[in-house]
Design brief:
Elements (H helix, E strand, L loop, with lengths): L6 H10 L2 H6 L5 E3 L2 E4 L11 E4 L4 E4 L5 E2 L1 H8 L4 H12 L17 H20 L3 H10 L4 H6 L3 E3 L5 H6 L3 H9 L3 E4 L2 E4 L4 E7 L5 E8 L7 E3 L15 H7 L6 E4 L2 H9 L5 E3 L7 H7 L5 E7 L2 H14 L8 E7 L5 H8 L1 H9 L2 E2 H9 L8 H17 L4 H14 L32 H11 L4 H4 L14 H13 L5 H7 L6 H7 L13 H25 L9 H19 L1
Parallel strand pairs: 12-13, 12-14, 14-15
Antiparallel strand pairs: 1-2, 2-3, 3-4, 4-5, 6-9, 7-8, 9-10, 10-11, 15-16
Helix pairs in contact: 1-22, 3-4, 5-6, 14-15, 17-18, 19-21, 19-24, 24-25
Length: about 575
Amino acid sequence: MASRIPAQFIDELIARTDIVEVINRRVPLRKAGKDFQACCPFHDEKSPSFTVSPDKQFYHCFGCGAHGTAIGFLMEFERQEFRDAVEELARAAGLTVPKEDEATPKGPDTRPLYALLEAAAQLYQRELRQHPQAVRAIDYLKGRGLSGQIAASFGLGYAPPGWDFLIGQLGRTEQDLRHLIQAGLVVEQDGKHYDRFRDRILFPIRDRRGRVIGFGGRLLGDGKPKYLNSPETPLFHKGRELYGLHQVLKAHRAPKRLLVVEGYMDVISLAQFGIDYAVATLGTATTPDHLRLLLPQAPELIFCFDGDQAGRNAAWKALETCLPLATGQQEIRFLFLPEGEDPDTLIRQEGVIAFEERLRQAKTLSDFLLEHLAIGIDLHSMDGRARLGSRVAPHLERLPAGLLRDLLRDRLSKLVGVALPNPPPAPARRPGAYRRPSAPPPHRPAATPLRLAIAILVQYPELAALVRDLDEDWRQLNSPGIPLLTELLGTLASHPGLGSAALLERWREMEGFAVLRRLADPGLLAHVPAEGLAHELAGAIQRLNQEALAARSSTLFNRASTADWTEEEKDALRQAIQTSRTGSTS
């Protein structure tokens, strides 16, 4: 690669980057089935045709044909150079881009950590079923009203007493021990090592893709802290993650509502009662990263807080965090529970119908904003109304320009009895965000067998294993794309876990990238149902094999005498004739 950024660093960066979050910071997205949609930022349109796939980590516009990875999006939207885009994503992921003379990236290889955390989760689940002292944990969960089915669905486990259960199971080598420390599972102190979680019920924390990234532990005996989360690690950042979001998205392709609560047990108890759209922050206040993760997922977002003063203070902090992201496309509400109650206890007392009625009556963002700022103000007096206007105006300016801000400004004007001044004009659009006035029809290459095979492999790299079981006569073809197909299969054989985005970015600075990028267009395969992709790939390779045999036969027939043919060449001709007959009768 011309930039000399190692391919393995690009692989790691793509694995650590969430393309939905990257794009949603710049173009507000809405959930649409398993994907996300918006009006295309690269051409003017009234109906959204711009789709972002979290599974493939890829974006595509069916209107103008724009498509690519998170790196490609920054290059197109922000007009960034390749290395600038890589550095921006690396900073967000906590990585350092290697210098040109470095062979490996700085920062840990996270793949062993993901595997280790998943193995730990399985061990903890096993101990909940088998360890003699786990009966205390089971009794606690039953006492909280949880069924075995709901505990299993959230992967609850048990960390036995003692200092080295996990070390003994997963820390057999020095490297294993280092990985346990990096994953936050083992603590090193004064040269000694011990398990972080001991005699605790464990709640695996999964990212949106379902990977275990940390744990929360509830202590069973005496001591403190009662609840203990994993520390900040290369995988786990509590200000960016939400407990239960993976389960919500697994249960609902497009949830109609998301409920933000404060604890693990709240999420699990609500799910047991059928309210399976709750998530929890992880011991921290709501952050902008939380909101960027939540807002595209559902049209309604409800924050749930205790009704005491501490709960209202926490709600106000959440509202202030929401303001810069409140475009009006999603409804943001605030629910205050009776003092001394939490969602877990309340739903058991009232039942689902009464609890959901509370959700429907939750305060809107604008109601809560005005109600909170009007505390202690006499709205019947001119001075009081002036004070309210001066309090609310700065918060109005923090809202994005749009209908919500305009409506709230009108409402405030009626409350104070005077028209408020218009806000300053919005800043000009960045040059990188320029939209073409209309979408030219995307130019797509003809679907020859070679192009079809490469398109399927770059968009569905997991199908590469099918090609290894087929004949390889196609490798003898003298066509421009054959070396690219050969190298593509070689890369997927040596790196079988590569996804579409990482595979494409490996070619960014190499010959063949322009071809791969064109063939990564999902529109090329729009006519092929998902269940037919393997058949199409096998068919394309078989047609290439037939071309190779036909080309070889033509070369033989052009010779002056059959006496010059070798036995191998005669066998090849017989095979070509047989293949031709088979193909003509099929």
